[in-house]
Amino acid sequence: IPSSGSLWSPPRSYIYQKRWVKLDADYLRYFDGEKDAYSKRLIPVSSISRVTSVGDQKFEVITNNRNFVFRAESDADRNEWIRTLQQIAEERKSKAPERTPMSLATDSATEPADKSGFLELRGFKHKLFVVVAGDKVFLYKNAEDYRLGIGITYIEMNVGNVKEVDRRAFDLTTPYRIFSFSADSEQEKEEWVEAMQQSIAEALSNSEVAERIWAVESNCFCADCGSPKPDWASINLCVVICKRCAGEHRGLGPGITKVRSLKMDRKVWTEDLIKLFQQFGNAMANEFWAANVPPSEAIGPTSSSQERRRFLIAKYREGKYRHYHPLFGNQEELNRALCVAVTTSDLKETQALLFCGASVTCDTGDSQCPTPLALAERSGQRLQMEFLLHNKTSGWFGGCVGWAEPRGLPSTLLCCAEFSRRWCTLQDGVLSYYENDRNAVPNGEIRVEEIVCLPSLSLPHRIESTFEVYTEAERLYLFGLESPDSAREWLKSIAKSFVHPCAEELLALDFERLGRLHYKGGLTLERAQEGWFALASSTLHVCSEDGQRQEPLQLRKLQELCACPCPASGTPLAGREGICAGRTLYIQGERKLDFLGWVHAIQKAAGSSGDTLSEQQLTESDVPLLVDRCIDYITQCGLTSEGIYRKSGQNSKTTSLLEVLQRDARRVRLKEGEHHVDDVANTLKRFFRDLGDGLFTRQWAPDWLWATALEDEEAKVSEYRQLLDALPPVNRATLKALINHLFR
C-alpha cells in the first residue's frame, strides 16, 4: 500500500519540522521536500512493531530499538497513516521470506553485505557507515544505526556511475546528486570502487525475467526486426522487441504500445505477466499482427530508424498487416464475442477481438460482472485478466492551448486574450487539440515522433504557465495552462511519450530544455550522430543513439564556448570535466528555430549567476574563474609591487573590469600594460565584498568569527577544521586558493 504525504517530525530539540514522508512495501522514508530524490531518514517496515496514537494529530512508530513521533495535518490524516502503517507492517510480517538489504543487521537470514565500512562523504562533518548490498548502496550515520537497521538513505545503483577522482577519493554520480567519497587509503578506495561497480553491474544486468521469457523459442528474436536476444517488450501487445525497435515503439505512444525493459523494469514483471509472455510468444502475436507483410516492407536487424518507424506505424497503428477477425466492423458482435472469450483460456481469440475493435470496457449485460475484466476474474482466468489490464485505453485531459508558427524566436509578449481555449488529448502518440471536449474531429495534431525540442519554462518575456513544443517542420506551438504545476505535468507527459528508451533516464532530471540534436565528440569527431540532450541547471546531459550516456558536461567549467562554421549551424562546446582529460563537444542543429533556443540556453547556463561562489564560472579545481584570473595576474605581475592590496586602484577601471569578468570571465585575458596591478587587486577585493553569500557563507560566518576569539590553540584549530569541512566545495577550494596566494 504505497503512500506519501506531508508530516511533521521532531528533531532532537522536539521542535516539529515539516517533512515529505513516503511509505512503500519496504521502507518508511522522510525527505526535506517532495522533489528530493534521497531521504534524510529511512525505517525498514520489517522493524516496525507497533503504531499508536499519542495525542492530537500525533502518532508514534515503534521499532525494535527506537521510536519515531510524527504529527499529521489532522486527526483524520493521522488515523489514515496509522491504518496504512499497521496494515503494511502486518503484511510484511506475514511474508517473512521476503527480506530487504536494509534488514541485514536485524535479520540473520539475510545475505551479508557485499562491503561495509566508514567513508568520508562531502557535506557531512563525520564519517558515514556505508554498506554495499546487492544493487543498492546504503548510508548510515554510524555503525550502531546500521546494527539497529535505521538508515539515512539508499542509492539505486541502476542509475549510478563510479569515477575515481584522486588517490583516496571517488565520486558516485546519479542523475540527482553526486556523492563524493574519500577512503582512508588508496587500497581501500580501490576496494570500494570495485564493490560499487559490481553493484551497478548487478543492478543493470538482472536477466532472470529475460531468461524466463527467452525460454520460448520465438521470444529469442525481436518480433519486429528479428534481432537476437531482445531485452525490451511491449507489455500490452505481448511482443518481445530489441532496443532499437523499442525506441520506435515509444514514438507510437502508450495508447498503442507500452514499452518496458526485461532487465531494468523489474517491478512491472509480475508472475502473471511473465506467464502471459511465455504462453503468448512472438509467434502467436505475429500470426495476428504480421499475417500479411510483403517482403519489400519487412525490416531486419540492420534497418534504419526511419525504416523501423515506417514499418511499426503500418503494423501497429494502422493494422495494415493484421489478420482480420471475421466479426471486424460489427462492434456489437465483437463485444459479445469478447465477453465469451475472456472466460476461456483462448488468448489468441481475445487478442484478435480486442485489436479488431472490441471494447475492453464494454457492457456485458451481467450486473454482477459488468465488464470483461470482471467476467475473466469470476472465471479464474488470470492471464486473460492480465492481458485486459494492460490494454485499457488512455485517458483524456483538458487544458488551454495557443499555437504559432513564427520563422524566428518570438519577440512579442503574449497575453491570455491571444490564446484560444482548446480541449487537448495526448493519446496513441498524438497530441491533439479540439474546439471543445464534445468535438470528435481535432482542429490540429502533433505526432510525438515529429517533436524535436521541449523547453520546460517560458522565457522572461512570456506569460506564466506556458511551455513550447518545437517540431521537425520548424513550427513552434505555445501551450498555456492555468497553473505552473499543470503545465509541468503536461510537459512531463509529452516528454515521456517522445523520448527514446535509451535516454529515458533524462526524464528524471529537472530539465530546462530537452530534445534531439546532432553532435560530434570523443572518438567520433569524423561523423555526427544524433543524441538526446537535457539541460538541467548548469549541466548538459547527453545520451547517444546507441544508449551510451556521456559524462555530464558542467557548463560553468567550460574552457571555451564559441560558434564555428560547422555544417548545419554547428556550435562547438569545449570543456574539461575532470583533472585528467579535456574534451570537445560539437553540437549541430538541423533546424534554426529550436537550435537558436539551445544556443541561448547553453550560453546562459555557462555564465555566472547568483550571489554564491558555486554559481560563478569555475575552473577545474572549483575556483571561480574571476578569482583565478585575478590571482594569476597578481602572482605574475604584482608580487614585488609595494603596497599590494593596501593601495586602491582607480574606481572607474575597477568597476569596468569587474563587470567584464562577471559577464564572461572566459573571454577576459589580463595583460601587463593594459591592466594595472592595483586595479586588478581592487577588483578581487570588491568581488568578495559584494558577494551576497560571502566566502564563509551567511550560515557559517558567525561561527568563524567566534572561532577567532578562542584562546586555546588546539580548540581553535579543531573548530577551524570542522568549519572548513562544513563549507561548500567551491567555497573551500576558493579559500584554499586565496590562502596559498596570500602566503606567497
Query: Can you give the helix content as a percent range?
Result: 25-40%
CATH uppermost class of the largest domain: Mainly Alpha
- The quaternary structure here is single chain
Counting DSSP E segments of at least 2 residues, the number of strands comes to 31
* Cα-based radius of gyration, to the nearest Å: 30 Å
- Superfamily (CATH H level) name of the largest domain: Rho GTPase activation protein
CATH architecture of the largest domain: Orthogonal Bundle
Point out poorly predicted stretches: 96-111, 394-418, 566-570, 572-581
Q: How many independent structural domains?
A: 7
Determine the N-to-C terminus distance.
Answer: 63 Å
In terms of DSSP E residues, the strand content is 15-25%
Helix count, DSSP H or I runs of 4 or more residues: 19
Specify the biggest β-sheet.
Answer: 11 strands, antiparallel
Model description:
The structure is a single chain. The chain is of the alpha+beta class and 744 residues long. It has 7 domains: 3-98, PH-domain like (Roll); 115-204, Roll (PH-domain like), CATH 2.30.29; 208-317, Annexin V, domain 1 (Orthogonal Bundle), CATH 1.10.220.150; 331-389, Ankyrin repeat-containing domain (Serine Threonine Protein Phosphatase 5, Tetratricopeptide repeat, Alpha Horseshoe), CATH 1.25.40; 400-498, Pleckstrin-homology domain (PH domain)/Phosphotyrosine-binding domain (PTB) (PH-domain like); 503-605, Roll (PH-domain like); 625-743, Rho GTPase activation protein (Phosphatidylinositol 3-kinase, Chain A). 32% of the residues lie in helices and 22% in strands. Strands 18, 22, 23, 24, 25, 26, 27, 28, 29, 30 and 31 form an 11-stranded antiparallel beta sheet that branches. A 7-stranded antiparallel beta sheet has the order 11-10-9-8-14-13-12. Strand 2 (17-23) and strand 3 (27-31) form a beta hairpin. Helix 6 (271-289) packs across helix 9 (347-354) and helix 17 (697-708) packs antiparallel against helix 18. It is globular, with a radius of gyration of 30 Å. The model is unreliable at 96-111, 394-418, 566-570 and 572-581 (pLDDT under 50).
